[in-house]
Design brief:
By secondary structure, the protein is of the alpha/beta class. The protein has helices spanning about 1-20, 40-55, 90-105, 125-130, 145-155, 165-180, 195-200, 225-235, 245-250, 255-265, 270-280, 300-310, 335-350, 360-365, 405-410; strands spanning about 30-40, 60, 80, 110-115, 140-145, 210-215, 240-245, 285-290, 315-320, 350-355, 370-375, 390, 415-420. The chain is globular.
Length: about 425
C-alpha cells in the first residue's frame, strides 16, 4: 500500500512539474498537428498515406471528393474538412485559419506541418501567413502533382541560357508574394507555381526549410550548370527535394493500416468482393487508362485504338479507368454527348468502366498482377515494369515528362505503343 502511495505521489509531482513552473505559469508541452490541402489525385494520395501513418492529428481537405470514397473507415485522428469535394476558396482558407487559432488557444506551442500540392505552393501564404504564424511555427511539404511537376521544371529550367535567369525570377516572385500576401489569390489557381522549385531547393542558406516529395527527382534534368548544382545540393540536404513514392509510403504502412487504406480508397467491404472478382479471377486483367477528351484525340481514334487492343488482348478481362474529370458514368453537360457515346462503345465491347475518382495507383498497389496501358498519365510513374504493357502515343517523346526519361532509363522494359492518331 505504501509503495502505491509513493508511486502515486511521484506521478502527481511529475505531471505538476511538466505543466507548471516556479512563477505559476502553465508550461505547455510541444505538440505537432498536420494540415493537408490538396487538389490533384496524386497529391491527395500522398496526403492520405502520410496521414494514415502519422500518429499526429491531421486536418484534411481535398478537392476530388471521391479520391477517398470510404471516409467512414478513416481513423479518428484524421479530421475531414466540411468542404471536401469543393474547390479551394476563402471559406476553406478561413476554416483552416480557425483550426490553427483553436489549436493555438489550447496550446501556444503547437507546431503545424502543412502538406499541399506543389502547383499550389501559395497555400503556404494563404493559409499559414493568413493565420499569423511565424515561420518557426510551421513547416511545409510540397507533394508532387505528377507529370505537371516535371513539365514545369523542363519548361523553366532546362535551357542553358535561360534556366538560372528563370530560377531567380521565380525566387523573387515568391519573395514579392510573401511581402504582399494580399496580392495572392485565395483560390485553386496555380498563381505561384513557378516558385515551387526555388521555394523548395533552399536557394538562400537562411531560407526557411521545406520538403518537396517527388517520385523521380533524378529526372529533373537541366543543361544549366547553376541549376544542376542547386538540384544536387538540394537532394543531398536533409531538407529540400526528397525522393518519395506513394508505393514506399504504402509499403511502410502496418498491415492494419494497409487494410484501412484499402477501405479509404473504396476497395473495402462489398467493393473488395467486387474488385477481387475483377482482378483475382482465372483470366488475367488489363486496365486501359484514359485521359482528357482532348488527350484521347477524336472519337474515331479512341474506338480504333481500343479495338486494336482488344484484338491483341482477347484472352483478358479488359477494364477502362477514366480520367477523374471525364467520367462516362457521370458526364458533365459540356461533354455529355462524347462521354455517353464512349460509355455505349465500352459497354458494347464488354469493357467494365472503373470508378473515375479512385486513385489508380492504389489499384496497382493492391492488385499487383494487373496489367495496365494507356494514354500519358502520372500514374505510370507508379507502375512496375511487369505491370506496364503499352502506351497509346504516336511517339514516346510525346509523353509528358518524366515518362520519356524513365523509358530511356529502361524502367518501363519492352513496352509497346499504339498510335494515338492515324
Amino acid at each position: 500500500m505504501l509503495k502505491k502511495s509513493v508511486l502515486l505521489l511521484f506521478v502527481v509531482f511529475l505531471v505538476f512539474s511538466i505543466v507548471s513552473c516556479d512563477n505559476g505559469q502553465v508550461i505547455h508541452p510541444k505538440k505537432e498537428v498536420n494540415i493537408m490541402a490538396t487538389l490533384g489525385t496524386l497529391p491527395t494520395l500522398y496526403a492520405g498515406l502520410i496521414a494514415l501513418d502519422s500518429p499526429l492529428t491531421t486536418y484534411m481537405w481535398y478537392s476530388r471528393g471521391d479520391t477517398f470514397s470510404g471516409t467512414e473507415s478513416m481513423p479518428d485522428k484524421i479530421k475531414l474538412s466540411k468542404n471536401i469535394g469543393s474547390d479551394f476558396s476563402v471559406k476553406i482558407q478561413d476554416e483552416f485559419v480557425d483550426i490553427i487559432h483553436e489549436e493555438l488557444s489550447k496550446n501556444p506551442n503547437v507546431f503545424f506541418n502543412l502538406f499541399c500540392d506543389d502547383l499550389r505552393v501559395q497555400f503556404a501564404i494563404t493559409v499559414m501567413d493568413k493565420a499569423g504564424l511565424d515561420e518557426n511555427q510551421y513547416s511545409v511539404t510540397l507533394l508532387s502533382d505528377g507529370t505537371g511537376s516535371y513539365d514545369l521544371f523542363s519548361s523553366r529550367y532546362y535551357s542553358s541560357e535561360t534556366g538560372f535567369t528563370n530560377y531567380l525570377e521565380d525566387y523573387n516572385s515568391w519573395l514579392d508574394a510573401k511581402s504582399n500576401p494580399s496580392g495572392v489569390s485565395v483560390s485553386a489557381t496555380t498563381q505561384l507555381k513557378n516558385s515551387m522549385y526555388p521555394f523548395a531547393t533552399k536557394y538562400k542558406k537562411d531560407q526557411h526549410e521545406y520538403n518537396y516529395f517527388l517520385q523521380w527527382p533524378e529526372a529533373l534534368q537541366s543543361q544549366n550548370t547553376d541549376i544542376e548544382l542547386i538540384m544536387q545540393e538540394s537532394l543531398l540536404h536533409k531538407n529540400g527535394i526528397v525522393k518519395m513514392t506513394p508505393q514506399t509510403l504504402f509499403d511502410n504502412l502496418s498491415e492494419s493500416n494497409k487494410l484501412l487504406f484499402q477501405s479509404m480508397v473504396g476497395l473495402g467491404g462489398e467493393s473488395k468482393v467486387e474488385y477481387d472478382g475483377y482482378f483475382k479471377s482465372e483470366k488475367p486483367a488489363l486496365i486501359i487508362s484514359g485521359t482528357s477528351i482532348g488527350g484521347e484525340g477524336s472519337k474515331d481514334d479512341f474506338e480504333r485504338v481500343v479495338n486494336e487492343i482488344l484484338g491483341d488482348y482477347n484472352s483478358y478481362n479488359v477494364f477502362f479507368k477514366p480520367h477523374p474529370r471525364f467520367d462516362p458514368n457521370n458526364p458533365s453537360d459540356a461533354e455529355y454527348d462524347y462521354l455517353t457515346d464512349k460509355k455505349d462503345f465500352l459497354e458494347t465491347n464488354e469493357i467494365t468502366i472503373l470508378k473515375a475518382m479512385m486513385p489508380m495507383e492504389s489499384l496497382l498497389f493492391i492488385y499487383s498482377d494487373v496489367k495496365i496501358g494507356g494514354y500519358s498519365s502520372s500514374l505510370y510513374m507508379s507502375a512496375k515494369k511487369e505491370q506496364l504493357e503499352f502506351f497509346i502515343v504516336n511517339n514516346i517523346d510525346e509523353l509528358s515528362d518524366p515518362l520519356p526519361f524513365l523509358y530511356a532509363q529502361g524502367l518501363f522494359g519492352a513496352v509497346k505503343t499504339y498510335d494515338k492518331t492515324k
